[in-house]
Amino acid sequence: MMLDTCDFKTQYVLHLADDALVLGQRLSGWCGHGPILEQDIAISNISLDLIGLARQYYQYAAELIGGDTTEDSLAYFRESREFYNHLIVEQPNGDWGDTMSRQFYFDTFHFFQLQHLTRSEDLRLREIATKALKETTYHAQFSAEWIIRLGDGTKESRKRVQKSITHHFPYALEFFETTEFDKQAHDLNLGPDVRELKDKWIEKVREVLNIATLDDINSDAVAKKGGKRGIHSEEHGLILAEMQSVARSYPDAKW
Amino acid sequence: MAEVSEDSIMNTLSGVMDPEVPVLSVIDLGVIRDVRINQSHVEVDIAPTYTGCPAMDVISSSVEEAIIKLGVSKVEVNTVLTPPWTTDWISEDGKRKLLDYGIAPPKNEGNQKRELFQSAPEIACPRCKSNDTSCVSLFGSTACKSLYRCNACLEPFDYFKCL
After folding, report:
1. Is the CB of residue B105 less than 8 Å from the CB of residue B93?
2. Which chain B residues are within 8 Å of A142, Cβ to Cβ?
3. pTM as predicted
4. How many domains does chain B have?
5. Which ipTM did the prediction report?
């Protein structure tokens, strides 16, 4: 399912799905390892929401592609080069501050992205986004609260979360890089012009960083990009290897 | 196919419980959106509560099983996303059952639900009724609940959060 073999709308739906799946898979790595029980449960719930969302998008993409394609073939039988998720969602879990800074940047973007998708010309995207927006509001609140708690916490927590926030910022800037499918999706009124989401995102991020007593964003930072064009980090292959191994070892297995 | 009426189906479904909140039936929960009786089969529309809720598959198969027991030969359960399920659809009876079970029912926050970074609502303890409670975590034992602590009786409790 390389980019040039499917139409722009399908590419766009796959891009939305891949973000949700890869981040959902990443977060599932915390299940049983959360810093305290409440956070273990919370992050696993957020993971479930994202995987549920990925399924909705993949089911739709499979219908658009037709033939034998299913949600499972899209999730388990594509190669890393065929995934169009943002680089930030494949970044390692690291410590709790790393996970929360990755989550905070993503959730805040996801909130504004979904808000726009609830007005999509496409009925199915509108339906999926309307449902997911309500859940994402809770995710965004959760991760922002953690940024504040860690930033305005102990000397050690502040130092570590500051490092994560600074490290992930250039990855987050890929949200606002326009690919051909973004452009086409916007021209067809399916999704937002991602560049237009940037101001709202920056404003919200700044507000939270300020409450968290963390440094302001680096306005000279340059986006780390490639994920949306299928060019991923080494981490991505490792995520897929783990996630896809059962399906690929037993391709016709049924639950 | 045996003769069934919508009333008998709804009556049966009021005995089908949510596996994760076993005091609430699928009717109390408000997830049954439509029931259509055709010549050869019965169709049921279900609205999922949370996108990734693992209970939804169990709910769908329990609904199918319950209707088949009425003598219906074929049941089709459809998932409908629009309009999206909201906690406003939990019946008054359902809210009372939640409270009796020790889960604080959703407190209508009106249009605040969609705001980014709203503050946690003030929730009364389902045990001692004190308003002196605090939110421990937005995500409790399931996606649909938050974990609270009562500062008066010191007991932890679940709050069925608004969606």
Report:
1. no
2. 138-139
3. 0.91
4. 2
5. 0.81
